[in-house]
Amino acid sequence: MYGLIDGNNFYVSCERVFAPRLVGKPVVVLSSNDGACIARSNEAKEIGVKMAQPWFQVKHLERSAGLIAVSANHELYGDMSARMMDVEARYAPRQEVYSVDESFLDFTGVCDDLMATGKAMRAAILQETGLPTSVGFGATKTLAKLANHIGKTADRKPGLYPAHLAQVCDFGRLQPQELDALFAATEVGNVWGVGKKITEKLKAGGIHTVLDLMRADSAQLRAQFSVTLEKTLLELRGTSCMEVDDAPAPRQQILVSRSFGTAITNVEGIIEACSEFVSRAAERLRGQGSLAGAVGIFFTTSPFRQNDRQHSVNVTVPLVRPTADSAVLVSAAAAAVRAHFRHGFNYAKAGAVLTDLRPVGQEQGELDLFSSIEQEAAAHTEAARAKLMTAMDALNHRFGRDSVRLGSTAAASSRDEIRVWATKQERRSPRYTTRWDEMLVVRA
């Protein structure tokens, strides 16, 4: 049996843990530069706020409906996610962290009363982190995901599903006729892996509910769609095609990008931004034990500013030797920026991507062009640089991000445009759990 644990309205719930005044109020979390609504409380959904809807379209609801908007606080959300996952991991031997607010647990052979376990786990998460969750159990990951959807919906919208399924839903306790009734009441688009386009095609072919999909001909679905949908059908019927992946494969590329809070017009500003993004990517690279064989950078003007001259740069720099050294990667990126930057443009976005990734220790040999003494010196230098990067990551993890950083990430420190690329977050809450100077203080 598998379990899927999901944080309810996760970003909003993280904000409410430290700001109880937001409980029961319509709340949205805004994206980079406070541009669009990327998370909504149930109350915000009820007053008509749509997912990814631009903020300017709903800003009037602040006065008319009491809508409250906060800027995304990803540092807080990431730390709260880690705390929630740690609690969940105590209840099963295998865990797959699927996203910032979801994880799969494998309960096969280790638990008899899943309903009691689910309730105990949900209560522990609420007590230790303050985050509300929904729990779903099923014989496959797809069924567990669907059970979670039903449990969450039964809690949020009483009447759509039986009340006893709210919050914790275990398909293993239900009779076949009960499951058929649930599947008949659930639209096919709510199945994990069935996207919008596939949903439209399925409905055009007469498949509107989960029960319709389960009764469809698997060979016909495979011929019309793909083997992926056929596997989804098998999972719905109880045949497991996906196991819990408690050791996810390393990413094949690492991308960090951001829109600027204010347009950048000089090369120093672009170098600073790209240096910051490469440093972030390099830290993730080391975290998964990989080396990068190439670093790419891009920066572009905004296509929405039609009165501005348009220019876009996208270049990849291959490296002589794969590396995870931030200094080497940043140096390559900075050189690429200097070579391709053009004056007279209002650059609005930039990013960095590390590609050609490979595990540490898996390196291609090269011709012996140096003496053994020079080779030993080079190896010693590389080992010392690796230790330096490890020390930098450890210090930043212990004392907070940017406690130790490369000088080029603050290259514009003597200019007026220092960190103008930084995202606008005019409504961001404090980072309560990761910054000493922003910790919540209670006075007697």
UniProtKB/TrEMBL annotation:
Keyword DNA damage found: yes
One of the GO biological process terms: error-prone translesion synthesis
GO cellular component: cytosol
Stretches assigned to coiled coil: none
Gene Ontology MF, one: DNA-directed DNA polymerase activity
Residue ranges annotated for the UmuC domain, each copy included: 2-195
Keywords, ordered alphabetically: DNA damage, DNA repair, SOS mutagenesis, SOS response
Similarity comment: family membership: Belongs to the DNA polymerase type-Y family.
Protein name as it appears in the record: Y-family DNA polymerase
